[in-house]
Amino acid sequence: AISFFNMYDLLKQLLLQKALQEHAVIFILDAFDAFVTGAKQLLVYNLLDWMQSKDVRVALVGISCNFNVLAQFEKRVKSRFSNIQVVVPRPPLKHILQATTTMIENVVNWPAHVPAPPDAFHEHWDTSLHRLLFDQTNWWWQYLYDLGKPTDVFVQLLHVAMTHLTPSAPCLTTREITLVLGMIGLERRHVAPYSFEMIFHECQAFYRQHALQYPKRRELLDALSNLLATHVVHPATTKQQHQPEYCLVRLVLRPTDILDAIRRKLVPVTTVVDQWATNTLQ
């Protein structure tokens, strides 16, 4: 990484050379949000200060997904910016899904030592992919797309979810479903957000009621970590918590959608867990 002072000298020398050659310079900051921190904000201020010189023709363009990014800068920095903002709306979900299909449709590069599957496999893959993205669950994709802004949040969510699916584990595990139902139970009593400890005690009551053996705390904590990784739940605060069991979380999915999926047998669960979802939490 280049230190602030080295970067400062580098830019100053660059602008001096361009001024002597009567060239114009355009700086494009494609991660503008990263420049709201102390030293980087000072660098932006110096760039804007140099723009006041008649000898240097400089333009600064900041690209951000945050519409109010300028509000995070110091007053002396904000005052240097013009009021020109070009707002590019998010593309429709349909365009994102079409781009996703184009990227992953029939593009598997099979290793030389692995026999390639028959054409029927590729046809089935393409048909299943189209049905998943456009036919059966379009309303669900729209919900997730509206939930995560900007667009790259949705793409990251799609990537994480896909990489956690395997033929042997195509869905959430029973322990993960149990934790989710514990969260729904807390929300039914208007308790939100909630920590692992609160969810754990809720699940303990369920296991105790049905005379079932408690899972180990470590196993349930790992299950919660997987729920966070797959964005089934997300942290309720940006504050870093060194002990994960005390981190406050919220459900990303709507409780009614989860319970409806269990009721319609779309999610494989044990009979006891099914009864908990359909009889107690509905």
UniProtKB/TrEMBL annotation:
Q: Domain of life here?
A: Eukaryota
Which molecular function terms from Gene Ontology are attached?
DNA replication origin binding
The Gene Ontology biological process terms listed for this entry are:
DNA replication initiation
Instruction: Quote the InterPro entries the UniProt record gives.
Output: ORC4, P-loop_NTPase
GO CC annotation, single: nuclear origin of replication recognition complex
Provide the protein name: Origin recognition complex subunit 4 C-terminal domain-containing protein
Which species is this UniProt entry from? Aphanomyces astaci (Crayfish plague agent)
